[in-house]
Every structure is written in C-alpha cells, then in structure tokens.
Amino acid sequence: MNPRTDPAEDVLLQHPWRPVTIDGCQLLAKSWFGETAYRILLTDMQCVWEERMDAVDIESRAQGLNRRLRASVRAFFSHLCEVARPCLSGGGRTGDEAQISVRRWEDGNITLRLKSELAGLPFYWEFHCSPAPVALVCVQLVRPLLAMSRLLQRQVEHLEDLLVRKDEEIQDYRENGATLSRERLQTDIFDKQPYTEDFIEK
C-alpha cells in the first residue's frame, strides 16, 4: 500500500528534473502546475527546497503582493503559469520579459521573486521554498537515481554478455572456413574481466 496521500506527489514524480539558471544561480528544478495549485522542487545538489500551494494560498498571496490588481484566482494563476513555467523548465524568460531573482535566507529557506505585467500593471509573485523533508528527497531524487543506475548496470551486463556470444559466433564461422573480406573489420576478442575492472576503477 502506498503511504502517500497527495495525488500531486505521483504526478510530480513523472516530471523530469531540469537544469535552470535563475539570477545567476544554477539549480535543478521540477514543477507541477494543476488547475489552481502547484508544487515545485529546487536543488543545488547541496539542499532540496519545496513549495506547495493550493487555490486559497495562491489567492491570498496574489492579493497581498498585488493590491492594485483585481482578478479571480484563476486569472492570477493562469498568468503565473504563463510566466513561471518557462523559468522553471529551463526555457528562460517569456515574451513579456518576466524577471526572476533568488534570495537565500539564514534559516535555510529561499525565495524566488518574479515580476511581470498583467493587464498593463506590474504583477509580482514569490515562491517561498523551504528545505524538503528527507522522505521527499528520497522519493523524488535519490530513489529515481538509484533505479536508473541499476537499469544502466543491467544494460551494461546485457551488452557484455552479447559481446561474448558474438565472439563465440564469429569464432564458429572462422572454424568453418569463413574469412573477412576486409581486414579492417577484424576486432579483438572481448575480455570481460579487464573491461569490468576498468569500469569500476573509473
């Protein structure tokens, strides 16, 4: 049984980590935007930060940061998605030249401050990201990396076995009189042990 109850958790897991550069800071980002909710993860490979917001939180923050604007939460969120998604997916700035900056706090939190324009007026947004719990880091970063590492290891082992069988097949052809039409195509017999030792050393 899966102990996680947040449906966004599994959706976020399906999204890739993307390299982004924000205000000169190189990060990896993963984000999910729903209808009126979002989740974002950021890491500099020393710390992982997260923020999750629902419609009520988004409306409250949007009105607090944009007192001159009067719009529905869906309008705020639609514009936020339009300008924030490219910044968090490595796409850079949008056509309206949205500006985004990063501030690190002494308590370990970070804030992404975004400025753009909505209906001819300045639009401000802040992502307040706090250090993610270890369980979330394991689910979203460590476990996928370990799974991919194991998958690649199995693929290497399969290719090693395939090379050994190919050498046996070629040797059988030679023993039955087959010859190469071009000498440059001749290859050395694959020796698995030194290859494996070299791989582990590197």
TrEMBL record:
Pfam family, one: XLF_CC
Annotated InterPro entries: NHEJ_factor, XLF-like_CC, XLF-like_N, XRCC4-like_N_sf
Localization, UniProt: Nucleus
UniProt keywords, alphabetically: Coiled coil, DNA damage, DNA repair, DNA-binding, Nucleus
UniProt keyword Thylakoid present: no
Keyword Nucleus: yes
Chief site of localization: nucleus
Residue ranges the record marks as coiled coil: 149-176
Domain XLF-like N-terminal intervals: 16-130
Residue ranges occupied by any XLF-like coiled-coil region domain in the UniProt entry: 133-181
Family: Belongs to the XRCC4-XLF family. XLF subfamily.
Name of this chain's protein: Non-homologous end-joining factor 1
Source organism per UniProt: Xenotaenia resolanae
Gene giving rise to this polypeptide: NHEJ1
